[in-house]
Amino acid sequence: MKKINLIILAFSMVLILSCNKDYLNRFPESDPNSATYYTTADQLTLAINAAYNNLSYQQDGFPYQMQLEGTSDLVWQRPATDAQTIGLGQHTSNTTMIRTIWTQSYIGIGRCNALLENMIKAKSVTTAAQYSRIEGEAKFLRAYYYGTLISLYGDVPLVVKSMPTEESYLARTPKAEVLNAIFSDLDSAAAKLPLSYTGTDIGRATKTSALAFKSRIALYNAKWDVAAAASKAVIDLGYHALYPNYRNLFMYVGENSRESILAFDYKLTIRTNAAPQNNQARNSSGFSGLIPTRALADSYECTDGLTIDKSTLYSTADPFKNRDPRMRQTLLGDGDTWFGAGGITFNMTFHPDSTTCSRYTPTFAKIPNLEVTNAFSSYSGFIMKKYLDPQDIAVPNQSELAFMLIRYAEVLLNYAEAKIELNQIDASVLDAINLVRARGYGVAATQTTLYPAIKTTNQTELRAIVRRERKIELAGEGLRVFDIRRWNIAEKVMNGILFGKAMNKAIYYSLPKPTLDENSSPGYTSFTSLLSVVGNFKIMDNPRVFKSHNLLWPIPQAELDVNKNPGFKQNPGY
Amino acid sequence: MIIRMKKTLVYFCCLFFLFFNLQISDINAQSIKVTGKVVSSDGRGLELATITLKGAKDAAVTNAEGVFSINANKSSTLIFSAIGYKSFEAVASAAYLLITLESITDDLDQVVVVGYSRQKKVNLTGAVSVISGAELAKRPVFNTTVALQGALPGVTVTQFNGVPGSNAEIRIRGIGTLGNNDPLILVDGVVAAIGDIDPNNIESMSVLKDASSASIYGSRAAGGVILITSKRGKSGAMKVDYDAFYGVQQPVDKPNYLGPVGFMNMYNEALTNEGGAAKFTPDYIASYMDNNAKDPDHYPNTDWQKATFTNGIQQQHNITLNGGTDKIKILAALNYMNQNGIVNNSGFNRYSLRLNTDYKASEKLDFQFDMNLRRDNTILPAVGYSELFRQVYRVPPIYAAKYSNGSWGPGWEGGNPLSYSEASGINSTTGVSNLINLQANYKPLKGLTINFNYAPKFATSFAKNNQKRIEYFNFDSKALLFANPTKNTLSNSNANSLNNYLRLQAAYTKDFDWLNFNVLVGAEQTDNTSQNFSASREATLFPELEQLDNYPALNQNSSGDASSWALRSYYGRMNLVASDKYLFEINSRYDGSSRFSEEYKRFGLFPSFSAGWIMSKENFMRNIKWLSLLKLRASWGTMGNQNIGTYPYISSVILGSGVFNGNIVSVAAQNTVANRKITWESTTIKNVGLNAAFLQNKLNIDFDYYEKMTDDILLTLPIPLIVGMSAGVQNAGSVENKGWDLQISYNDQIGKDFKYGITGVFSDVRNKVIDLKGTGPYISGFQITQVGEEIGSLYGLQAAGLFQTQSEITASATQYGTVKPGDIKYIDQNKDGVINASDRVIIGSRIPRNTYSANVFLDYKGFSLSLFFQGVSKYNGLQIQDAAWAFFNAGGVRDIHLDRWSTTRTPEENLKATYPRFFISQTNNQQTSSYWVDDASYIKLKTVSIGYSLPASFLRKTPFSMFKIYASGQNVISWDKVPGYDPEAPLGNPFNYPQVASFVTGVRLSLK
């Protein structure tokens, strides 16, 4: 009996081992196969959605565009992040942030390329409108990623189709050639994309996203006529308008306004950002991360339209007094009432002697003033307020506040700057600038008595005005770093000691005024003599260094280590 | 008692007769039937002991009670051998022989477990190292991997940290591939994890190192094979053994941090160095300690290590029941262990039950039913060890850990390791697994054994990460400062898997006059399916209730996935032993794996050939008295590696999520370049070896030289980032490992009572990348892999000391940022006047070239002492960031940093300074360079153990047949040159869980 059983067993084993041919065929159980991808309309949507995700990648808990501002003269990154390293001029080809922006941009480009190449497979089953829109989105995104790349790295390999690995050891394509490809993609995108969306599609690229980005990238490359035409096209479409309240524009209440031309949104469990925690004041449980520099604060005009070195309205002791209202809407400074964790409101005080400050709610009390006593509190005496919504204070590291990549105010300023450079100065130029300025004051552009409207038509004066206006209006949004490069002022504004707040009571209220140059960049030679007294100033750790080769970032070392193409060389100086 | 005395009497009588028979052995030459019993020193019958007739091929095996019978010429010599026992020679006689075999650790005649069968060690042609369970038991550890460290030549075990329940890394003969180098581990013939068997239940372990021994495991053997055999029941009265130990563990190699005064002074120096102003005034510093005594809340002096570390109590209890009849034998072992970590809320505990049953249905048919049931639980603070220990080793002493009013001090920005360990919640993982192993052996004909094996393994695990919000208040105002973590979060995840293993095998053995012939063929298949599910919720207001239902449904999240793989294989072996001295063996395996595409090379063939020559049995050597054995071996063969992920040849589209207008949308993209043509890595090993024994086997030498070449290595070669996808695996490149393994042991005794032994193990391996298919070098962080060099060599700038003067800086190449005297000087390798990435060179090795160990034991009467030393040389470590730099990211400063370059020190002192001028954030000194590379060679006294067994005369009046007490220390002393961290620690910023030393006392007893 046992023998028979065993023989049966043996035979069944042999059968099992030899017959079941599919035994070794195993496939991924949760991921679709690439061979059947791009064949339905829904799949095209999944694919284009993936290409958007590289816009919103986070660097050290910030949208990377916001973190880029930390490498400009307007903001200093206090924690030892890559943005601080770059700001100090100590970055190398191994700096992670430099590699990540490169990598993320090319991943986005690769996703667009694969979609554009394969979407034909789904053409017969997709509505013409949807097909055209997705194609337009892919072209826009590809142009956006290339725009970022050429602005940071100069010449970069132009890849417009998917390629086998062995063909990917490419030389760098001249920037001008990449720029043409960007313009052509944007033209095509502008023709295919709708003006607006509804419901869950809000946030996708629109016709104006393509035009507005074209005006930006043309401006960056001194193609004044292209920039002027593209920005004028956005203005003429009449869809966009400035949001009436500058402060609210960067809060939840201002999300998806007509001013927003392209933004990416957050959602808990998928992606959130930690900007509120990183940037908040100490008493609000924040880390004082992106610290506004004195140079930003001193760039705001006084309400008479004059810079602080010229205006009689300026008070050294109370720098927020009589200033462009955008100053207080962008910066949290001395005397402000602010929110803290656990439902407290308190008085922001940066004076070095104020080791306590007033708490107003829940009950009035004096509480320790961490803005002064904490080693890592705001160095400058200012805290970034833009994109800080008190709603986020309860859980400051999981903000869902959408981040705007392009907004209408920038388009107006693009238009004005392009026309000024073309020396085609007319009323439309002044209107564009005044619209932006008036909104800062919360008034209509026509109410010229309620804000310092621009009236001059002198090209040189207007150039200075529009540059200051960009600096003020767009501070903290990630564009300054490109502006100081293209205006060739980076070496001037980025070098030297970053002065923090005066730590010595004797000079705190009586600091000399800085002198502002033709680009409204404050110079602090008058402070240098005060340095001889140790402890007069809080000084950001190291002097910043910016050399001419820093106008471009290095090519990431990881890429150079792999790509040995003789046409793929490091940027000079690295 | 009377029975025992009788037994002893019989024993002595037998010995007497043996002795007597020896004297007259040459006179009679008639064939007789010799019967008897083979027992171990505790009197238990030994099953499967082999009895061979010296000079002939005849052999017999003992039955379950140890009883044997064999036909032999009268007065011929019989050799008795069994796994783990010293062989014994006796003269054949008509009298009933009672043979007691002494258990030993290593012997030439022992039978060892090899792939799919057993062989006499003397007849092995491959490089196989064996360790017995008795030897492993000398080191009271929880973990088999730790017990293996240094125990066998060619086996390198590295223990990166002391995390409770974690396994050490095992590497057999170097690193053959850039991918998975883990050896294949089988328990009783079934692939298993090393944690699947309790070290107490191990009968023996064989490590198969060369191709001839391992290639029968084909595509999974390239990293070597470890065969673990569990203890089995023996017939006889039920025997009960109990073994327990209890002890503490403490972190070793702790860095020493300066207190508040030292910290503040040095921090001021660092600030001044960087052009800043001093932060702490001299008055503040001078009165700090006085103020600390009066008001520690405002003037803290926190020793973070002291505040956070606790004694990790550990204990283990093991009960084994063992007994049975001729037909049924059972071994049941119940084990419990509990190991607390060195911070609160960390630890590991395990319950395991092994039940090994043998059922002999008839002379031709027997069965084994084995089961190993195991439940373990690992807990750690929810923030995780790396964050916790990072803060222990960096927060300056001037921040409070806990205020006098009981609230948490802020630590550094809410990074307080004490609150992390005590209040951040617990991350707990519970695993339950059951490995069932059913075997049937059928012997229809003499010499033929058919084996059927079915072994399913079920495993489930449940992980619960319960992260709790910790609030930090200002001491004076009671205002909330930080919450870190900010939210209460609970996530549960569940995974389960089923591994099915099926085997059918036939073995045939035939003895001719001059030839012993063995052949084995088999087929097996194994498949694995696993699935997982996880869910999380956030922000409960009742954090003390730790279930998902207690959390609001808002922000809930879930995910799940499954995967499977399969492997089908056919294998065979032919083994010839001619004239007892010429050995020859062929192995081959044909493997098919689901991990490769059907259209390309799904199946691979892995053959091996080996031969051996026992020279000492030749006539010209036979009479050399001092030479017991001399054997030469040579082998060649190939093996494969398929351990490269589950679906590497399939290009799949990975699903993810995105957001539009506050709505979650799906996204999908191909993220990795797929390669349909990928196939096996193949490893070819050439091995020549020598076994020699001298002085009646007192001195043993085993030596092997090998060349191991791995081709078609599955590499993720970096591809240009502009491709926009992660690189897929490719068959690219070759890596060579050449080296030798040597084991020398000497065991002897002086007089009757004093026994001693020493075993030395030495290994040498040189690793070299031969080919990377024209690509590379490729660099990952501070490691490089390039042709002509070792895998993963340390890579960075070469430091040339510190700049002493400004003129020296001016005369040197341009470095990074602002460079001043006291900063690190680098060598401009390409002489282009600029120090940058192109000046990087190889600055160290990460593969220990030499590993060695020495095991010494001394036994005197009931006392025993054993010492175990282990070391490596030609090995480097690299420590940066928190692990090496003062003030890094607002960290503290250590005593070793005081020997820095400083304007406050003399030029002579500065010339010898071991640390650059203090910096806080300075690109120049923070480059990866040889300045931060250490010689990580070490010698450690890994184990010292002292034991005392109560004498038999004393035990006579007790219920015990054996009673031993012992005390043992692990990781007792380390002689090394690295400051403040363990040389076995991983690279970079290794402030993970520290290495620990443990001290235990234990008892081992047997009931009568």
* Overall SS class of chain A: alpha+beta
Give the overall silhouette of chain B: globular
Q: In terms of per-residue confidence, which ranges of chain A show pLDDT below 50 for 5 or more consecutive residues? A: none
Task: Give the CA-CA distance, first to last residue of chain A.
Answer: 83 Å
Q: Strand-residue fraction of chain A?
A: 5-15%
Whole-number mean pLDDT of chain A: 91
- Strands side by side in the biggest sheet of chain A: 7-8-9-10
What is the strand tally of chain A?
A: 16
Report the β-strand fraction of chain B as a percent range. Answer: over 45%
C-alpha Rg of chain B, in Å?
A: 32 Å
What level of helicity do the residues of chain B show? Answer: 10-25%
Count all strands of chain B and give the number: 53
Compute the number of helices of chain B: 13
Report the major sheet of chain B: 23 strands, antiparallel
Give me the oligomer status. Answer: heterodimer
Helical content class of chain A: 25-40%
Which pair has the most extensive contact? A-B, 120 and 97 residues
Unreliable spans of chain B are: 1-28
Written account of the structure:
The complex is a heterodimer of chains A (574) and B (1008). Chain A is α+β, with helices and mostly antiparallel strands and 574 residues long. Chain A has 22 helices and 16 strands. In chain A, the strands form 7 sheets. Chain A has a 4-stranded antiparallel β-sheet, with no helix packed on it. In chain A, strands 1-2 form a two-stranded antiparallel sheet. Chain B has 1008 residues and is mainly β. In chain B, the strands form 12 sheets. Chain B has a 23-stranded antiparallel β-sheet that branches. Chain B has a 5-stranded mixed β-sheet with strand order 10-15-16-13-14. Chain B is globular and about 105 Å long. The chains are: A alpha+beta (574), B mainly beta (1008).
